[in-house]
């Protein structure tokens, strides 16, 4: 069965959303490079790469289903942040937005009986639970560290060890 047109359009939009998330995490990595917090920077860099793989999962799915892939421009991400806590708050908010996007996609796929799309999206639903949990854990730690440079350096070291999230 050909990929439903409305679903194909929504999946293309989601490729763009994932790439925008990737670009935003890269901007966050750049912010941390500027703050001399290399552990945070590499953690966000790793997460940026991960979002790229999410985009490619959808890209590959559309291709396999014989749909048309249409790439759009990626909006400029925010490049300045008030503090590490601000970055973590915004990244958690972004993950919540993505969860909403995946839920909406699932709802559409359900509505038009796109069963294989629902199956593909199940992976994303599970992934979003992990990601929201991960970002809220790091946010809690960043809040606990507050503006104390020593605490931030300890958290930075922890994030450097975690490597790619
Ligand atoms: Fe971090 O989210 Fe993609 O899907």
Q: Name the CATH architecture.
A: Up-down Bundle
The major β-sheet equals:
none
**The CATH topology, please?**
Ferritin
> Could you spell the SSE succession in H and E letters?
HHHHH
**CATH superfamily heading:** Ferritin, core subunit, four-helix bundle
Radius of gyration: 17 Å
How does the SSE layout of this entry go?
Blueprint: H1 5-34, H2 38-64, H3 84-111, H4 115-145, H5 149-162
Helix pairs in contact: 1-2, 1-3, 2-5, 3-4, 4-5
The structure holds hydroxy diiron-OXO moiety.
Residues 18, 21, 51, 54, 95, 98, 124, 127, 131 line the site of hydroxy diiron-OXO moiety.
Verbal overview:
With 165 residues, the chain is mainly α. The protein has a single domain, classed as Ferritin (Up-down Bundle), CATH 1.20.1260.10. 79% of the residues lie in helices and 0% in strands. The chain contains five helices and no strands. The chain is elongated. The termini are far apart. The structure holds hydroxy diiron-OXO moiety. Hydroxy diiron-OXO moiety binds next to helix 1, helix 2, helix 3 and helix 4.
